[in-house]
Amino acid sequence: MPIIANDQAAEIPWRPGYRRFTLAGKEQGVACSASYSVLEPGAGAPLHRHDELDEVLIVLEGQLDVQIGGERHLVEADHTISIPAGVPHAFVAVGSSPARFFAFLPGQGAQVATTNLEGDPPDSADRR
Fold it and tell me: Which residues are CB-neighbours of 5 under 8 A, at least 6 positions away?
């Protein structure tokens, strides 16, 4: 279905303290991937990169401690993070409340191939 109620999006098992919900992907007939995530303080994604695709994160609430390449940034709500393909990046929710953000990748499945530089891959092998 091309229209999805965000509060009814399918939750994809990801990481402890990291809830990820698919908003758009193959089930909606598109070749891109859009998701909504909620990170509890201290949860996030270890250093990794997407070799073929850019990634965009739109922070809605909370704060993320973000590493992009060799730089670190504290990113707060109402900011967008643009990560070029191949650039190592990591992020963790900081502060006293969960961070909430939208993520967009202009592809899905094998195109979203992730090279984990630290830590384990997410719980789900399906990268919708």
Answer: none
Q: Is residue 110 part of a domain?
A: yes
Q: Which residues pair with 19 in a beta bridge?
A: 38
Per-residue pLDDT tens digits of the chain, which is 128 residues long = 678 888 889 898 888 999 999 999 888 888 888 999 999 999 999 999 988 899 999 999 999 999 999 999 999 999 999 999 999 999 999 999 999 999 999 877 654 667 777 776 676 644 44
pTM, two decimal places: 0.86
Asked if 65 and 72 count as a contact pair (C-beta separation under 8 A), the reply is yes
Q: Which domain holds residue 18?
A: 6-116
Q: By C-alpha distance, which of 6, 8, 28, 27 is closest to 101?
A: 6
In a domain, 1, yes or no: no
User: Residue 76 falls within a domain, yes or no?
Assistant: yes
Please give the span between the terminal C-alpha atoms of the chain, in angstroms, as a whole number: 15
Q: What CA–CA distance (Å, rounded) separates 88 from 11?
A: 25
Question: Is 122 within the bounds of a domain?
Answer: no
Q: Rounded to 5 degrees, what are φ and ψ at 112?
A: -90, 15
Q: How many domains does the chain have?
A: 1
